[in-house]
Amino acid sequence: MSERSNWFRFRMGKEFSRILYPNPVCLLSTLERVDGPTKKEYIIKRNVMALSWVTPTNNHGRFMFSMNKSRYTMNALCPNKSSNEKNNNNDGGGSSSGSGNSYQTNIEFTLSIPIRGMEQLTREVGSASGTFGSKFHSSSSPSITGKTSNGVSGLIPVPLGGGKPLHDNSRKQFAIQGTVAHLKCRTYTVLGTTPVPRPGETMTQSKESKNDTNAVEEAAVIDDEHVLVMAEVLEAWVHPSYWDDAKLQFRPMSISVPPYLTFFGSWKFGYVTGNNANGDISDNDAILSKQPSQTQSDWCHFRADEEISQILNANPVCFLSTREIVPPSSTDMAPDHSVMAESTKISKKKVTIKRNVMVLSWLTPTNNHRRFVFSINKSRYTTTLLCPTNNKSNNNNDNGGSSSSSSSSSYQTNIHFTLSIPIQGMEGMIVDVGSVSGRFGSKFGSKLERINNETTTTTTPENSMSNRQKKKRRRQVISLHGVEGLTPVQLGSSKVCRDGSKKLFAIDGTVAHLKCRTYAVIGTPAAEETSKSNESNKGKEEDTKAETEAASATIDNEHLLVMAEIEEAYVHPSYWDDTNLLFRPLSTDTPPYLTFFGSQKFGYVVSGNDR
Q1: How many helices (H) and strands (E) does the chain have?
Q2: How far is it, in rounded angstroms, from Cα 416 to Cα 565?
Q3: What are the two backbone dihedrals, phi and then psi, of residue 375, each rounded to the nearest 5 degrees?
Q4: Which tens digits make up the pLDDT trace of 371-410?
Q5: Residue 308: C-alpha distances to residues 447, 565, 566, 594, 598 (Å)
Q6: pTM exceeding the 0.85 threshold for the entire prediction
Q7: Which has the closest alpha carbon to 440: 481, 399, 471?
Q8: By three-state DSSP, how is residue 115 classified?
């Protein structure tokens, strides 16, 4: 690696989040001070663990990851307030502010991103615990238990941004030698449990029941074994061979540059490459001809935790699909809904089925029992379907829904939806789906008449348009006619869903279909919903504002944290390793699935030789 002065260094802005966009495998490093017989006699204990369940939550450097409570790193990263209130032994900072439960926050740590060639080091780091000795080879870094350790071969602490190895007792935050991106981070919230309102009540209503001590209970955000750590990047360094400064993308800049890693499970790694793994990316026809057949009987169908939890390990780009039933009166009363999505009237019930789909890349598993988490912007049209507020009737949503769930806000949960995983050759479709909102027209092709469609056409020649004008025209065409090739199909097949079908659906051409449901939504309603609530309850205005500010700190005022779980899954056999229970392309001729670099650019998750 080149000298530290050559690295890109970032201190603010979108760059922080872009580094974590592809959800790379990371090495998480912490510092801990181990006291000796006197205050002046102490040693600095370094620790490092492998982390793959991590994803951004906004474009301002915030991210989240799941942490098992039994991990040795948990003691340094998420110390318990009651057992270590002053945090004297933690050299990463720390305070009791900013967390809604019993864990200290403001703890600093480092993420280092390894590359191909570091698979064995990453395995060894992840297979050993700091409880039994230092993972760094040094006689001056004994463990608290007094046991000895030879350390992990090649695991060397270096300054952030590269440089000479640090001496044993350095108190500086450190990165791992050989890695290509270093992120200095801090925790700001640790979610172990979340308040649960009584069935049929919001949080505010439950808190008004002062005489009922059981009005608000606590439930695990993930499960009894994990916490959800919310953190933010303070500063970052990226090796110049992995940073596209023009497009603000963290990716290998050439074929000769070793790719960084993603995780399939069972200590098997995939590789994130910015290059087409199966030919020229522009040759979509050739790529599509390699796509596997979509015969329903061929698909692998899973309902057990062990298989289901493996599918999202590599954090692939997904299509998130929802559907809604709209009575005729709703269409008449809400002009915005009249052109929102595919509309086919069912004569017997006199309702309209509206399908919608969005692109999702900020998601990650949270345990090995089918649960996962993702961030969603409140302004998304999908948010109104996936996270309806409790003060609205849910009669129009056909995805299920109830308010008796582990949600700390006023959002309904138990909403069903589908994740479909696209592959190479579908990049154009993904860009089109993500470029328009379901508010303004169906993303699915339809011959139905659109409102004001004559106002969205233009006679301007395309060769005389700017790029911005071309994108605007493209969005108008999609709003009128839908996304080309976007077809709803039954889960685990390529059989097209009939018009008016109320069943959940997947997207044709994708290779994994996951039937999911929400079980918690953490955040606060959009501004207009909050203001309506305040108007009807002015006496509680100050309390409501305080609750809003506290809850929105989970990410920011623009995003919600959605906790969900997979109920069943279908995977095409060309992407399922039944021996190792891994979701991955099984041959070099199989089109890889995608990860996201940002700016409508994609990376490809390939298996390589690490099998």
Answers
A1: 12, 33
A2: 10
A3: -100, 140
A4: 999 999 999 999 999 999 876 544 445 566 655 444 445 8
A5: 37, 10, 7, 19, 27
A6: no
A7: 481
A8: strand
